[in-house]
Amino acid sequence: MVVILNITRYAIKDERLIPWIKFFWQVEAVNVDLHYKLLPTECIDVILNLADNMIYETELERIVAPPFHINGLRSKYSFIHQENTIRIFGISFYPYGLYPFVHKPLNKLQNQVVNLYELSFNLAQKLKEAVTNDSNGSVVTAIEKALIDEFSINQNFTEKAQLISDFLKSNDCNSVKSFCSERSINIKTFERMFLNYTGYTPKVLRCIRRFQNASNQLVHQHSASLTDITYYNSFTDQSHFIREFTRFSGTAPRTFQLENDTVKQNASYTYF
Questions:
Q1: In whole angstroms, what is the distance from residue 55 CA to residue 211 CA?
Q2: d(CA 37, CA 252)
């Protein structure tokens, strides 16, 4: 039986957080048995789980996640399994957005589930205090306050984050080499910066972003042809699109639509 997850998304209210965090989200459900595929994504999610265990399943292992954990940028699909009661608050960061709150290199977070207490005890403890509020609206406000308490940046990082953002927004035909040439940046320096602040190289992160856009089109635009998606996302040709999509998702595009087994295909959203 397919269970539709009702996910509430909260917009960021504090302007200081907007450049770094995409949105907050919350899921609550009871008496469930969920087993859904998680696709590669360009977001880094901090998960605050207040109920029963979350279990991640990859090709190689089964991971019982710590209650407060980070699901880093992913270049591989996995599965998530939850039973009984779900009560989760999540924070979805931009690829470079987590660094100003933990101030540690993120190159070890790729495709990993990491205990938030191990990466930043102070942030984990403050978020734990924030989610003890009873009212959902108050919880989100308290989460923002906890984040602001740990937030710190300097001009050097701001400039580097802007470079990362500019590259990800640039035309996919604009190679790393040409982008660095335009900005008078050494390529190796640029790649090390990406790894430090996002956990991935520029090329791989752009591929993840492109895959995410294509998978969203397949979910929300069923009538879109593979040719249209190929062209819109600047794949070389349809074979290139199918090959890259299959590498990231484990299935070909049309099979992906028919299987209907991902979180994004089985969720409804409420926005605040």
A1: 24
A2: 14
